[in-house]
Amino acid sequence: MKLELRGITKRFGTLLANDHIDVVVEPGQIHCLLGENGAGKSTLMNVLYGLYEPTEGEILVDDKPVSFRGPGDAMAAGIGMVHQHFMLVPVFTVAENVALGAEPTKAAGFLNLDQTRQRIKEISDQYGFDVDPDALVEDLPVGVQQRVEIIKALVRNAKVLILDEPTAVLTPQETDELLDIMRQLKSRGTSIVFISHKLREVKEVSDTITVIRRGKVVGTADPAASTTELASMMVGRAVSLNLEKAPAQPRETTFEVSDLTVVAPNGQHVVDHLSFHIKRGEILAIAGVQGNGQTELTEAILGLQERVTGSIVLDGKELVGRSVKEVLDAGVGFVPEDRTVDGLVGTFSVAENLILDLYDKPPFAKGISMSPAKIMENAKARIGEFDVRTPSAASAAGTLSGGNQQKLVMARELSRPLRLFIASQPTRGVDVGSIEFLHRRIVAERDQGTPVMIISTELDEVMELADRIAVLYKGKLVGTVPAGTGRDVLGLMMAGIPPEEHAPNGHAHAPQAGIPAATSNAEGADHA
Ligand SMILES: Nc1ncnc2c1ncn2[C@@H]1O[C@H](COP(=O)(O)OP(=O)(O)OP(=O)(O)O)[C@@H](O)[C@H]1O
To answer: Where is the region Disordered (predicted)?
Structure first.
């Protein structure tokens, strides 16, 4: 199926999110949309999927104009979309989810559950999806849930699949599997519109790249171009993809976690006798595959977990047993892994979101009332400094693009005096230009003497930012290794194999393979 977007324009009030965009997606093509945060990519896809009505322009399917009044129309025309936040019902099975809301197909009419199960099996075999139709969605890893979304689209005969930042929530292995699936789909004639900020994967799978900047198409890029070239074309200036950072100058230890255990409601020790410390002026990165206790660890520090034993000491004060407000007041800056749930209030303005933790403190509070002038002044400064693309400080935070929402949370948390900074997935959904800036800000916070803890499933990010790297596996610390430790060693540690058991080329016993000799564990003997 050939798909054409011709002169698509979309306004939100005075904001021109899409400005006469022309894109042609050829049959069986992986077509990447590349553009900085707020460029208008998701808006364009929402127009294509019938979620937004375009202000101007038309969509053509096989050279015939079509008009969509909703996603149902788009699906009927052969367009499917996998959203970043899955639209699945966790307590239903895969087959129930796929059958849910399905339109009757021309070939089979309505599918009953048995037929749906059969179709899932066929598709799963055809593409090597390895999805059990009877599994409960809530029991499936994120990568498999995403495949269920793809199956949902394929059952509805999608010929063009929209994938909007599909790898943002995936582990590196799941990402590789998804890229394979994309190639499979393409080889069977399905076209894919692919949005991603990860240039390595864009280069790997794309046939064509359309670059969008500030709502306009600025050109097409060659997938064979270097990541630096792609990055510059995307943001319209030279971007340095390598963080230049001076070695840490660690001072005294002010943050110490000892024998910390968090017990889940089902009795499982999701954080299991964890001990580590962070000095002032150093960045400790917690690496690991998602779901190995990272979330519970940060929640325990923040006072959001109930069944916690052990101790968490900041500046000589015990944090276990404190309320969230008390923890924040102790000077903890926190960027949560899911900004839309814990980081922002979508209906509040950008300005209000920038003082969520500070609304009752000077200069924003005056007695029992707030100072609107100070709140606006602060907002303008932060928006400028962190390059948050928003029509105004008064816009609702929920209308900002994903990457700009992330920048907003980072701006708020890095703009007050901190005694400890914790960020989970600090640059999720953020474009390469802004990653460069945010990484520099995190290092600047370190250099001011703040202990910094980064939790990231992105190995590149961990390796770039960390002064020491602690790897979590099943709630336990596999080990702590210094900056410069190789990707292979970290990979094995993420699979639960401690460094002393790594061999130069395998898993047998040969200590410290791939770990910089001079610093090996001198600063990192935080074994659980
Ligand atoms: N529902 C909405 N109401 C008002 N403005 C909106 C709405 N949706 C998007 N916008 C604005 O449209 C612009 C484009 O946003 P969009 O989400 O399309 O960007 P994007 O290229 O997908 O960015 P990112 O890479 O950060 O996801 C932004 O300025 C955003 O604030």
So the answer is: 500-528
Residue 132, both tokens: 């059990």
The type of residue at 195 is I
CA distance 51 to 128: 31
Q: Are 214 and 39 in contact (CB under 8 A)?
A: yes
Query: Whole-angstrom distance between the N-terminal and C-terminal Cα of the chain?
Result: 56
Q: How confident is the model at residue 524 (pLDDT cuts 50, 70, 90)?
A: very low
| 413, amino acid identity | E
Nearest atom in ligand 1 to the alpha carbon of residue 400 is 31
- Distance CA(38)–CA(116), nearest Å, equals 38
CB atoms within 10 A of CB 77: 21
**Lookup: tokens for 369:** 């009332």
Query: Residue holding tokens 């005096």?
Result: 417
Contacts of 318 (CB under 8 A, 6+ apart): 311, 312
Common-topology check for domains 3-235 and 241-331+417-528: yes
Confidence of residue 527 (pLDDT cuts 50, 70, 90): very low
Ligand 1: which of 42, 395, 409, 430 to mutate, most ligand atoms within 8 Å of CB? 42
Q: What is the CA radius of gyration of the chain?
A: 24
What whole-number distance in Å separates Cα of residue 263 and Cα of residue 352? 35
Which strands make up the sheet holding 191-195, listed edge to edge? Answer: 79-82, 160-164, 191-195, 30-35, 208-213, 216-221
Give the distance between the most distant pair of CA atoms in the chain: 70
Please tell me the class of the 3-235 domain: alpha beta
Residues framing ligand 1 (Cβ under 6 A) = 12, 15, 17, 35, 37-43, 389, 399-404, 429, 431
Rounded to two decimals, the ipTM of the complex is: 0.98
Burial of 441 (C-beta count, 10 Å sphere; 0-12/13-18/19+) = middle
Query: What is the C-alpha separation between 10 and 352, in angstroms, rounded?
Result: 27
CB count within 10 Å of CB 496 equals 16
Domain ranges of the chain: 3-235, 241-331+417-528, 348-415
Kindly report, residue by residue over 32-89, the tens digit of the pLDDT: 999 999 999 999 999 999 999 999 999 999 999 999 999 999 999 999 999 877 888 8
147-170 burial, b for 16+ CB within 10 Å, e for fewer? Answer: bbbbbbbbbbebbbbbbbbbbbbb
Best of 11, 14, 43 for a ligand 1 pocket test (most atoms within 8 Å of beta carbon) = 43
pTM of the prediction? 0.85
Residue 363: asked if its preceding bond is cis (omega within 30°), the reply is yes
CB atoms within 10 A of CB 196: 21
Q: How far is the CA of 401 from the centre of ligand 1 (A)?
A: 4
Residue 510 and residue 292: Cα distance in Å, rounded? 26
Tokens 């770990």 sit on residue: 515
Superfamily of segment(s) 241-331+417-528: P-loop containing nucleotide triphosphate hydrolases (3.40.50.300)
Three-class secondary structure of residue 448 per DSSP: coil
